[in-house]
Design brief:
This protein is α+β, with helices and mostly antiparallel strands and 396 residues long. 28% of the residues lie in helices and 20% in strands. Among the domains are: 206 residues, Sandwich (Jelly Rolls), CATH 2.60.120.650; 65 residues. The strands form five sheets. It has an eight-stranded antiparallel beta sheet. Strand 7 and strand 8 form a beta hairpin.
Length: 396
């Protein structure tokens, strides 16, 4: 496997037999994979949902029946391209014993921030107050993204490779090392991971359906641009040197552990602050951390491979407002008129006065509520995703 979680099995769904659904041994030839309907399609194999059965819990989405051959396809590529460690799921295996269930898929802001209320979280955003919430379920965030889903992105053509960064302590590995013929070389990337590099997947919300659903829900509540990155860390150290981010971050520890050392904001641009840490804790699977923008921090990976999600909050500010205003002014002929083609100082002065008058009028007409509403509508239109029923005749 390419990125096996070093002895930590992470499953895309919950296998069960009959009506039990928890900690039961069963024959592998009748395994049923219960998965949320939002995960479409995270699997590197082809499975079609069967008709719901009497013992299928409707709240967990459709039942997908997977044969042993399908399960065995979790290893793909040159060296077996697979993040997920599925243990003894091989064709002919007599039985399989499962334990804890994956948490329900998080689709909205409230389920993400629980036990906080939406009002409390929005106050955290306004006050930019660092907040840590210990996880009550170590598998809580696996429904959003896990090893197998990342494996599927790397092995396929869905995820644009320009969004993938391979690095260690801010030193980037040249793409030529791990990209062969416009595809990720599983052998080369496996070797790099064994040497302790990190992988950073940016803009995942555009390519992972559960993350897309969650980001759109958060954006509706906050009127902010929301994106998601995932960081896979192998070996000691972290992906980046001590740094600060311009966005507010929500950190979700999915698998493995990672030490977060936060110094707080700095009074000197470009340099971490001097003084004691304001946060020094190892994040466990299921933990939640709100990290305000400008807080300098560094991470140290734990003994196993780590996977965490960063939800980035990019609120509109005065710069966005001015960019929107400038775009609209370009539709006015006077702002497209050349400044260097006046025959005398008088016509140049007349042009200057007209520009100033138009600018003053445009600035006076600014309405922040209208700007935020229009921006929210624009973002929702850009995020439209249409689906249709496949023509079965062409599939045949």
């Amino acid at each position: 496997m390419l990125i096996a979680p070093l002895g930590e099995p992470h499953l895309q769904g919950v296998f069960r037999a009959g009506k039990t659904g928890r900690c039961k041994g069963f024959s592998s030839h009748s395994a049923e994979l219960i998965r949320p309907s939002h995960l479409v399609p995270p699997f590197p194999w082809s499975c079609r949902p069967s008709q719901p059965t009497a013992h299928a819990c409707s709240s967990r989405g459709p039942v997908v029946r997977c044969s042993p051959a399908m399960i065995a396809k979790s290893s793909i590529g040159e060296a077996g391209l697979g993040f997920c460690n599925y243990g003894e799921m091989r064709p002919g295996s007599p039985s399989l014993v499962m334990c804890d269930e994956v948490g329900a898929v998080i689709t909205d802001l409230q389920s993400l921030i629980d036990p906080l209320t939406e009002g409390q979280f929005l106050m955290l955003l306004r006050e930019r107050k660092l907040t840590f919430l210990p996880g009550s379920n170590s598998r809580r965030f696996e429904g959003l993204l896990n090893w197998e889903a990342l494996n599927h992105l790397l092995d396929g053509t869905i995820y644009p490779l320009q969004h993938l960064r391979v690095l260690r302590e801010s030193i980037r590995i040249p793409r030529i090392v791990y990209i062969k013929q416009d595809r990720v070389s599983s052998r080369a990337l496996s070797n790099l991971l064994e040497q302790g590099v990190s992988l950073m997947f940016n803009q995942l919300e555009k390519h992972v359906p559960p993350l897309r659903v969650l980001c759109k829900n958060i954006a509706r509540h906050t009127l902010e641009q929301i994106s998601v990155a995932a960081v896979v860390t192998s070996g000691p150290g972290g992906a980046l040197k001590c740094h600060c981010d311009p966005e507010d971050l929500v950190i979700l520890q999915v698998a493995g552990t990672k030490l977060w050392q936060v110094f707080g904001p700095s009074a000197v641009a470009g340099r971490p602050p001097e003084g004691p840490l304001v946060f020094d804790r190892v994040l466990q699977p299921g933990d939640f951390l709100f990290l305000p923008s400008g807080y300098w921090h560094h991470c140290e990976n734990g003994p196993h491979r780590s996977l965490h999600l960063s939800i980035l909050f990019d609120p509109p500010n005065g710069q966005h407002l001015m960019a929107t205003l400038a775009s609209r002014l370009l539709s006015d002929e006077i702002f497209r008129r050349p400044l260097t083609r006046h025959s005398n100082p008088e016509t140049l002065a007349t042009h200057e006065a007209a520009l100033k008058a138009h600018l003053v009028d445009s600035i006076q007409a600014i309405s922040l509520p209208r700007f935020l509403t229009e921006r929210a509508i624009s973002c929702s239109i850009e995020g439209i995703h249409l689906e249709g029923q496949t023509d079965q005749a062409h599939d045949a």
